């Protein structure tokens, strides 16, 4: 699981830290997997790292650098992390070459779309006219999604789902990836690559809900 690199406080410490919400690891463990953290690292080591893994999660986090998809930053696009962008792109390069099972979550879906040559809408409220997908601060939006029948996402969560979202950006273009779920306002909520054994991403946060279908699917793909 890829991680944040942020300043954090714990105990007597107030230091830069590599961290991730504990619900990610708990979700992987509940699905029968062993969770490990992948902080930003040496790009030349990405293939070696991928060679030691059975599956990869590109986790949530900061906005993707808009220059990676040839766009200027919207006023709401701030705080991107070049070290994390570069590391996750290198991991995806190596994972694609190895056909490693990959699950993208929130930012992870946006990273996977941009990695494929796609683009993002930098402020989803400008597109859909509401703050439904990210009400603000640490609040999650409750979003109804329709899942495309027959897709990998449908096999994991069913044809309809009520999900929790926390994103102010969303995928616009996604070359080579198939749309597999949409919010009622048209926002793309999941994409996948059916030509690969397991390569999918969702815009919502499944780690915050009891339904572990996506994590079970990832662990099953990793086990295979």
Verbal overview:
The protein is α+β, with helices and mostly antiparallel strands. The protein has seven helices and eleven strands. The strands form three sheets. The protein has a seven-stranded mixed β-sheet, with helices on both faces. It has a two-stranded antiparallel sheet with strand order 1-2. Strands 5-8 form a two-stranded antiparallel sheet. It is globular. 43% of the residues are buried.
Structural features:
single chain, 224 residues, alpha+beta, Rossmann fold, seven-stranded mixed beta sheet, two-stranded antiparallel ribbon, 7 helices, globular
CATH topology: Rossmann fold
Terminal CA distance reads 19 Å
| Helical residues, percent | 25-40%
Spatial strand order of the main sheet: 3-4-11-10-9-6-7
Report the strand count: 11
Rg result? 16 Å
Going by CATH, the architecture would be 3-Layer(aba) Sandwich
The fraction of residues in strands falls at: 25-35%
Number of helices: 7
User: What is the CATH domain class?
Assistant: Alpha Beta
């Amino acid at each position: 699981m890829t991680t944040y690199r942020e300043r954090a406080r714990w105990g007597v410490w107030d230091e830069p830290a590599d961290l991730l919400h504990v619900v990610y690891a708990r979700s992987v463990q509940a699905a029968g997997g062993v969770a490990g953290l992948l902080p930003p690292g040496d790009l030349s080591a990405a293939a070696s790292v991928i060679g030691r893994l059975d599956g990869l999660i590109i986790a949530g986090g900061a906005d993707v650098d808009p220059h990676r998809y040839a766009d200027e930053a919207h006023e709401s696009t701030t705080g991107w992390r070049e070290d994390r962008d570069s590391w996750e792109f290198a991991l995806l390069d190596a994972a694609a070459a190895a056909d490693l099972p990959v699950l993208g979550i929130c930012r992870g879906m946006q990273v996977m779309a941009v990695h494929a040559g796609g683009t993002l809408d930098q402020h989803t409220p400008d597109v859909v006219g509401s703050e439904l997908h990210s009400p603000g601060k640490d609040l999650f939006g409750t979003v109804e999604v329709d899942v495309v029948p027959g897709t990998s996402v449908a096999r994991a969560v069913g044809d309809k789902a009520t999900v929790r979202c926390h994103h102010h950006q969303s995928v616009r273009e996604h070359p080579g990836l198939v749309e597999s779920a949409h919010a009622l306002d048209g926002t793309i909520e999941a994409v996948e690559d059916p030509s690969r054994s397991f390569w999918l991403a969702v815009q919502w946060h499944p780690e915050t809900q009891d339904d572990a279908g996506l994590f079970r699917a990832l662990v099953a793909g990793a086990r295979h």
